[in-house]
Amino acid sequence: MQEINPMKKKTLSGLFWSMADLISNQGIQFIIQIVLARLLLPEHFGLIAMMTVLIAISTSIIDCGFTQGLVREKDSSQEDYSTVFYFNFFMASILYFIIFISSNAIGVFFREPELAPILKILALVLIIDSFGIIQRVILIKNVDFKTQTKINLIAGVASGILALICAVRGYGVWSLVIKTISMQLIQTVLLWLFNKWIPSFVFNIKSFKRLFGFGSKLLVSGLIDTAYNNIYFILIGRLYSSSQLGYYTNAVKLRDVASQSITASIQRVTYPVLSGIQDDEEKLKIGFRKVMKTTLFIFFPIMLGLAAIANPLIPLIYGDKWVTSILYFQLLCIAGMLYPLHAINLNILQVKGRSDLFLLVEIIKKTLLTLLIIMSIWNGSGIIGLIWSAIVNSFVSLLLNTYFSSKVISYPVKEQMKDLAPGFIISIAMGGITFLSGMVLPGNDLVTLACQIIIGIVFYVIASKLAKIEEFDTIYEMIVPLIKRIRHKKYSIADKAN
């Protein structure tokens, strides 16, 4: 056990700052989102969501899997970094030009003429982002999430304030456009200021071929994954009104405050750490298993708890005009509760260099989702049916991911399911009790929400302790030293000030 302490220390430090990024930056973004939701209309959010898939797919093409390739390599040279930098900028410029000349046709497809001028401006984020990709890769390789937290926090606050000013002045949907562009621009500028890396005037063909050999399969799987992650925005935007898409979009964003953000935090920390021990099978399995179980212990109760408190939560934070989002949000939380487990299993395939299996898994999962979506549209079950398709696909995908990850690491599917079962059962029980308590508790939304949260937390802690869930003690052992460290730094700063 003493052997894995350096890895544990590095992971804990990365997780601490990654979670600090989540709590600070995402927390601030969430507050800004709440205010914007009260100032703007659902259709404003719907219009932006229609363009999300285009920007997301373009970003995947620009990256071409090179980011993961650079992070995975133990020793990347200046030539490697410079080669990828120039390629990213070239691809970003080409894709911006394509989007620019296609913007009118895209507006016609969605039956929203207003989309064309918005898309021409919003797509500038592709070029802006290409300038900061390598700086971010270097920070990830060094597990330096402290610097990333500072950058994201500053950019999030500044762009949020700018968006709120624009919304108050009546800029409507352009407030959201300005927020997106200004945040990306500030992040890129700060990445250059905090990270002193500068590209050399070189483009190495050998570096390109080596990195593209690994990244090309990830590019295809990334494109498939990105397209399907955003396909609901296309379908809802094309088949339904921009208002309906707006309700769905804000339900997704509220879910993603916990779901995607925590998943990204875990994924970006564990990938470089596990990559560093990829050749030691025993250490890799121990680290992988620990991450899986601890993630489930934290994540499942959060997602099921959010679904349980949705009835008072959404009207309280967004206002009564967003009540339609409640059921969308509850189902999306169920669909998203497995996201970190998907990410961790797929991380193992990348760590072991099996981008071929990574691609195969993505093709199988997306084929299944396509069939489920077609059945949903055929049955005329509307947006609710589409979300149920995502739920079914998510649970089946977990079995697929664990099956293929077990091929490269000695951690069989049966053993993984056995490890996950106790926390899963307790989380479901907690969610059910929390939801039922909300139905019988008197009072306004704020009182009901507070009581539900307290009931859920108390039940989960007691049940975990009685069931002797080892992750409960693990989390406790992680949190206490971090709190002591923060308090020590606080007092040290105070002493110096005096």
Q: Could you give a quick summary of the protein structure above?
A:
With 498 residues, this protein is mostly helical.
Instruction: Return the structural class.
Output: mainly alpha
Helix content: over 70%
List low-confidence stretches.
none
Q: Give the rounded overall mean pLDDT.
A: 82
Indicate the overall shape. Answer: globular
- What pattern of helices and strands is seen along the backbone? HHHHHHHHHHHHHHHHHHHHH
Number of helices: 21
| Biggest β-sheet description | none
State the total count of DSSP E strands: 0
The separation of the N and C termini measures: 42 Å
Number of folding domains? Answer: 2
- Beta strand %: under 5%
CA-based gyration radius: 23 Å
Chart the SSEs and their pairings:
Elements: H1 5-39, H2 42-63, H3 66-72, H4 78-109, H5 115-122, H6 124-130, H7 133-141, H8 145-168, H9 173-194, H10 205-229, H11 231-239, H12 242-275, H13 281-308, H14 310-318, H15 325-336, H16 339-351, H17 355-379, H18 382-405, H19 413-440, H20 445-466, H21 470-497
